[in-house]
User: Fold these one by one.
Assistant:
Number 1:
Amino acid sequence: MMWLSGGFIFRSGNSRFHRLDPRVKLLISILTFATALIARYIYEIGLVVAFILVVAAAATVLTRIARTMALTATFSAFIFVVNFLFTRNLESSSLYAFRFVAIVVSTSLFFVTTTPDELERVMKMFRLPRDVVFAFVTAVRFVPVMMLDALQIMDAQKSRGLELDKGNILRRARNMIPILIPLVVNAVVRSGELAEAMESRAYGASERPTSLVEYRAKRVDKVVALAAVVVFLLAAYSFYSLLAPIAL
Amino acid sequence: MIEFRDVAYVHPTGVRALDGVTLGIRGGETVAIVGENGAGKTTLVKHATGLLKPTSGTVTVDGVDTRDTSTAALSRKIGVAFQNPDHQLFSESVEEEVAFALRNFGFSRELVEGRVSWGLELFGLAEYRRSSPLILSGGEKKRLTLACILAWDPAVVILDEPTVGQDALQKEKLGETIRMLSSTGKTVVVVSHDIEFLWPLQPRVVVMKAGRVVADGPAKSVMMMGQALDSARVAEPHLVTLYRALAQRPDSPFVGPHEARAWIEGGSAPH
């Protein structure tokens, strides 16, 4: 479980991609996301995924992105089956399934290379309410903590004779109760304690608190952002005029 | 009873948590595992219950390799009270919490009721029998987790940092419980930083550092190994520190440090 979750959790890295302005990383993620949405054929989705994998390799996060793909495989298969049952169209069902993988992987690329602090600053730049930004970033920051909690709770319950993999699907669902209740209770208690700790450190005392880091885009950030936009426009143009006939 | 043979464990993250641990724990022994944070203490005891399987080496419980059996089967023999009680409490009432494992093991209804009452009385929790375990204080939750473990009468009891959040009286009671368990032939393994709690129990002490065992022996001997304890960042008991200091004074009641050591190991009074 922790292995799979690694596909969405930031770990420090020092590649050129990691050092990019977080706004540029977000732009690349949004553009690949959008490219996956406008793609009309499987080979186009394949090109998008290949592009993400090349960027991931350059950012030295290829393994992490592979984990994300492994994590999405089950959901992707589910999307394929449901679509196929209703449409009986193999091509469109495959397209939806692969599109889902491309969308998730493009999002994952941003999250695995961007620190929660960078994420917070990016959200603030979009003038989102401070409390909303804080709640979102804290939720992201606590994902690995919750995962660790879940593993420790599972260990504790397995040591009391609980067999999570035993029985039919209903029994297995019931077996999750001793895991979920402590997990939720811990999360609620932790959020209360965090709120108290934040308030005791003057959270909310000022409407415009000072920021530790002010982002200024460097030349490399501007060049990469421009290149990303150009690649997106080229991809969009190709998908709708040049490459499309190949599929016919 | 529990045999670790050249056990190494590498976390999925690549961290080497255990590095060639060879250790035998015999039935009826009281063993304290000490060492700095991240030394591999909890990782080691998780191997005994099969929660973790060694990357290399073997762990056997009563001759059975933990790779060949389930945690559920091992937990019938080995009860572990983990460090954070909030990681296991979930039932509607305190008595249901204690009964959870007993039901998992398929105990009869009468036996479950009897064991639940015994466990709650032992740890002074009978008055909370019908209360939610979530409303208990930190110390009470800790005692409840101990009651949950002892209720099914495992042959080995592993306590991971049992004194955290306990006041002096509860620590004393816990010490008495450990002595009681030892006297009834149980194997007790205590993972703790609380040297002052461990010292009166006079257990066999295993000192760990960076995934290795750096000292192993009776408490009176191991606690005199200043260098080994320092390197593993384990504080020696105040009594040992006191006698070291006294032995160095010109008006020392001891002839020298050797006599101080003999006093600590033998229990003879200074002249």
Number 2:
Amino acid sequence: MAKKPLLKFTSLVMALSLVLTACGGNNAADHTEEPGSNTGTGTDAAKEVSFTIAYATGDPATKQAIETTIDAFTEKNPNIKIVNYSETTSAAYLDWLKTKDAVGQFPDLVEMRDTKVFADAGKIVELPEDLRGLFKTLPEYDGKVYNAPIAGTAPQGIIYSKKAYADAGITELPKTYDEFLAIQEKLAASGISPIVVGGKDIFHMGFWTNFFFENEVYAADPDWNSKRTAKTASFTDAGMVKAVTDYKELFTKYVDKGWLSTADNQTASILVSGKAAQLFSGPWMFGQIAEADPSFEFGFYAIPNREGKTVINGLPSLSGWSLSAEAAKDADKVAAMKEFIKFFFDPAQYGPYLATVNGIPTTSAEVTYETGEQMKEVLRLMSDDTVVKSLGLANWYGENAIPPQFRNWFYKLLQELVLKNGDVTEYMKQADTEYDNNVKANAQQ
Amino acid sequence: MNASAKKKKWSDYVFWFILPALVVYTAFVIVPTLSSVYLSFTSWDGISTKINYIGFDNFIEIVKSPRVHNALKNTLIFAIVLVLLENIVALGLAVLMDNVRWFRNFFRSIFYFPVLMSGIIMGFIWMIILNYNFGVINQLLEMTGLGFLKADWLGDPDYALISIILSTVWKAAGYYMVIYLAGLQGIPQELNEAASIDGANRWQQFRHITFPLLAGATTVCIMLSMIGSLKIFDQIAVMTDGGPGFATETLTYIIYKVGFGELRQGFGTALAIVLFLLTLLISLIQMKVLRKREVQM
């Protein structure tokens, strides 16, 4: 009987070894370095260091331009290894980033678009002091700067086919919103679908939503969101109802029939193929359109409102490169990430980057780069003081930040409103209820 | 040493052999499952380190939320329609494959091929086929003079759900076909021959001999397709993203959406608990009914 404990121990060891053998079957492949780990070899002068990076890859031009910058940086700094976590995904960037966080792969250097969410959770740290001088303006959240803005907030406007306009007999660009609607009538009468919308990608729904909200609400009251949070404003207010009514009318009458199954990255093809005459989007599309058909002639303009005033998306917002709190604990990583940020915004590097993505510079240093006719109009709008600069529903920050979960839900609600030909006021009552529920739920966190 | 003592000694060692696997299973399955139950009573956003207990608030919201009701309705539609269609198509294919004389293996491979594809890839393929502007179906309709039948198959709420259902049947039917085929090949030919001599036609043979003897395969297929359809996610995520509006949202889809996209991990986990209970309940009922049928047959 004295052998019994020994037998039990032996059987346990055998079973454990079976399990561990199975787990360790791929050990040879696991000898590669952990993403983000510091290899720790080499001298201090060229200490080898590695960090992970992630950014939104929805726009192929941006993806390509950042990859080019990373390659140029690592070529110049062979001791710094950058592990690129970015993946092309149809999901919203926030969903993807949160999934990465859930599996323990939150990037060391990350393009942050939901600064409030990740700053509140302690996932990102303040931008190092010595980098702040690089930028003209740095928006603050809670009195702190978290982002190195990759590019300025891009205004959105109508990207139109010159041929479609000429075929429809349109010789002048609109000076008011009513003239814009008259143009839509002419385009529809000429047999072309007036506007293509990439409604399958929910973020795309924000383009038109923001246009109407900025014109009807935010231009007059930039603090409307904070009033809604405090329940002193409502989605059933006259301005909001007007904005959503205009939205519904536009989508019902002038938007291409397949808009709900069209992805954002298909819009350029639909425009250049002549199936639709216009796209409401930003300058990041110029490259995609030119690539889809280099001979396609197109123009860009901001849609004026009914009074003839122009309101565009153009205020600085809380977004850009952020350092993760975890990576910030490692001085070598911080030094490497700072080097990368300085390299990224160096005019010699930043200029070509902006030219590729049709971006707006954010640096204090002058940046010169070549632009096409459409981008010149974007830059003119940004520098024109008579053009009102605003932000979209979910881009406001501080007191004006909306509950993060509200945005996509609201865009879907607007889709349903159009599909079901719903009553605007009734749908806006639903929006009020959901907004209040979200505020309450977030207050419990 | 008598038999019962031997058995006891053996079971002692069995326990020690099971222990390591049990520890791993507990750490990676039991503990996360139990922590999910705890999280369903919190307002955790999935990111912050602070987790607040909020009692039954999440479950109360589930009961009240029209969005959840809509997702539950869609889930049940998927479950019922998919189970019926997948099994009817699979059984039909299995009977055909059982009788086909030429290119039998070729046809089996063709029908089984979609099963090997991931739901994501399949979703992308169908998304392209069903695209309003560039899709093959609309192009074919246009070319054959049936342009008036063109529709936004994934963008119109009237068609989106049925488009996902049909593409899922296309993907899954081959899998159930194999199970039915195995069942068919276990039925003695003599029974059909005897029935044929007695004057039974093909349909009567199928109705009174083949189908009853397939009871075991039917139970397995219905159970698997029911669980599969309650868990449907990939196709929706790729083909419609739950849209248009909220038209194709199912429980699994909003669990992911609210948990990851809307930063409400607590609420998403509560929904997952509801889905788990629903799946368990339906499976138990189904098992009871189908087992009873097997015994009767």
Number 3:
Amino acid sequence: MSPLTSAMPTIDYGAIAPVLIVLGGACVSVLLEALLPWRVRGRVQLGFTLLVVVAGLLAVIVRSTSGAPAVTTLAGALAVDGPALFLWGTLLALAIPSVLLLADRSVEPGGAFVADPVALGEAEEKEKAREARVAVGARSGGGGRSRARTGGGDGAGRDGAGRDGGRGRALRARDTVEGHTEIHPFVLFALGGMLVFCAADDLLTMFIALEVLSLPLYLLCGLARRKRLMSQESAVKYFLLGAFSSAFFLYGLALLYGYADSVKLADISQAAAGSLRPDSLLFGGLALLVVGLMFKASVGPFHTWTPDVYQGAPTSVTAFMAACTKVAAFGAILRVFTVAFGSTVWEWRGVLWAVAIASMVIGAVLGLTQTDVKRMIAYSSVAHAGFLLLGAMAITPAGLSATLFYLLAYGFTTVALFGLVSLVRGPDGEATHLSAWAGLGKRSPVVAAAVTFLMLALAGIPLTSGFTAKFAVFSAALADGMTPLVIVALVVSAVAAFFYLRLIVLMYFSEPAADGPTVSVPGPFTTVAITLGVVVTLLLGVVPTAVLGWADGLSFLG
Amino acid sequence: MSPTIYLLLSALLFAIGAVGVLVRRNAIVVFMCIELMLNAVNLTLVTFARINGSLGGQIMAFFVMVVAAAEVVVGLSIIMAIFRTRRTTSVDDANLLKY
């Protein structure tokens, strides 16, 4: 193959428009970050990010309603087929409430992220100047009252009664300084990586996308304004374990390259049908590849990072990560299983049975012992990953559509739930310990009702999206001859329902603690995000046919 | 010499890296072990490119190098951040989040 004869690959710009919009938007967002003064940056960045996400979503809708045929483009690097468009739509739709939660400044004054150093310096200067003025005023007998504001809604314990007044004021001024706006380009890059990840038709593209989606998330985890040590610890843990698992993914890629002489999914499938090379390369490669993918999806025994990172990261980042990463990772798992390994399914499925059972049992049993709401939801997500794996292992059209539906339903429920978690606050930030949630139903009936509804959705009670999704996945698995797994899944659902219901009981049937947390009244961003999640959860439970109809009849290319 | 021996070498390097990640305490050393794993993969890719007689593996090795470099930037900045607040990079000392 001489380089002179190799032709440029044709690029179907219409098909990959959503990816181009999001990644191009991310680059422009970096420029905005560099060029705009910090006073207007936050608002402009938020508006621009939302614009990019909505434009991407519109491009996906236009593409999927135009009836354009499924194509692989960029020399076979991306496959834009039915499932890819569904996953893109899901990711971009989930990104809207996630971005709103990330940008919220009403719950935590100044936002949930560490303060911008330039803005911080300026605020401190101003505070010093004011203090000097106050000192002059006090000497001349005037009562120089500080005008530093006292927390929007979470002032409890922060009015600095027993505190040195000047220092307290300076601290409060620090608190209100706007957080970093780098979060917006980070989110757009991560989102772009996710879009590529679930449409990648060869393993190398998938690996690059895996890194593009992971690296911004590692950084986002470490940016919390409060509980800095926990936040940074979660970033270190996520980073080291994430890099470790992506090395496994890469070694799997290398072995499969040795087996098939190509990393294209379709070529691997073809080679598996008849290759002279030893099968140990194929299955060794598959095993290592699956470790990397399962890690990202926080399945089963590869979940150890999940509770720590979900707890330590800022709650809005957790919401984005929990919903979108799971969608992208399961999108990639579905594609790899169906396209590359569909022909050898009977030889590897036994191992995945064990993984799915481990995931469901670990999630449910360890979830029972948790005392922190965010950790509890993390273990619940491990159990849900097991359920999702059930659908992904059934390499049938029903399994595919059920898994896609489950991802959409689970994503919206999770985003709304983390949005609500961020509202319950104590004197030093969010109060996530279970005891702090006691009697929330009396103190704040609306929040408690919303949490209850979402918990029921996670447990899979009828009239919520959780029930429809579980029903679809379990019946697909049953039809594909996985009866024992479905029985395990049903038992595990019952066990997991216990800890969801325990929180509900705690909220309604116990007395609120005297010094309990306050529930912040959310600003418009968080309200919209939570409402969207709750409404989608309800709609997918009551009238699921529209979305199920869309998910039905989608099939992977190749 | 048969190229297969390079596959064994790279598998060995990968295993050394993996064991290093599991047993070492310093975050920087853990990270270096991960880099060792990535470079072991590069050796595997190049060897398979030689065995298969195709160029793909060599090109993939370049991609891996670029990704590894990007990972270094992010990883070291995170480790720097935690070193500034904790004055240590030991992964055993970061133990606020558990159970």
